[in-house]
Amino acid sequence: MKEGCPVCRILGEYEESEINTILYEHVNDPTVRVKFKESLGLCTYHAWKTLKTAYSNPLLGPLGVAIIYEHMLSTYIKILESWEKVKEGECFLCLLVEEKEKDTVEAITEKIEELLPVYESSEAILCKRHHEMIDSILRKKNPQSAERLRKVQLEKLKKLRERMNSFINKFDYKALERPTREEVSSLPMTIEALKGLENGATLRKKERKKRTRGVLLWR
Ligand SMILES: [Zn+2]
Ligand SMILES: [Zn+2]
C-alpha cells in the first residue's frame, strides 16, 4: 500500500481509466452519447477532467472531446431556441465512481482481517470519509475489527502530526536543516487524510448538500 488513502487512490485510477475508455472506444457510441446528453456534458469537474485527459495523451488529442461537446452545444442551442426548460441530470461518471466507491469499501470490510496488518505497516492513511464508511459497516458486522482499525488510524494520524510539527519547526530561523521529503509531504498527506482526493464521489456529496440547502433557503 502506497502513501495516502487507498480508496481515494483506487477511485482516482478508476476514474482515469473510465475516461480513457470513453475517449478511446466510445466517442461515437450512441448509448454513451445518451448518457452525456442526460447531464448536458457531465458535471463541471468531469467535463474539465475529460478535456485534460485528452490533451495530456498524445494518442488522443482534443478531437473526440470536440465531437462529443459539439453535440452537447447543439443540444443546448436547440433547447434554448425552443424555450424548453434546460434539464441537467446527474453526471454518469459521478454515479459510476460512487458505485465503485461502495464496492471498494465493501470489499475492504470483507477482507479486513487480512488487510489490517498490511495497512498498519504501510504508509497508507485512509481519509476521514473512507474510514467512516468502512467503520460504519464494520461496527455492525465485525465491531472488534472496527475498534482495531480505529486504533491503527489514530496511531497513523498522530505520526502524521509529528511529521507536520517537525516540518513547521524547520521554518524557525534557528533551524539548521532543510525539511526532509517526509516532512514536506506531511502537508498534502494531512489534507488528504482530512478531505480525501477530488473524485466524482466526494464532489457529488458536496453538490447534493448544496442542493438541499438551496431548497431549504427557498422555503
Ligand atoms: Zn479516501
Ligand atoms: Zn461527474
TrEMBL record:
Taxonomic superkingdom: Archaea
InterPro entries: DUF6062 (IPR045706)
Protein name in UniProt: Uncharacterized protein
Species annotation: Thermococcus onnurineus (strain NA1)
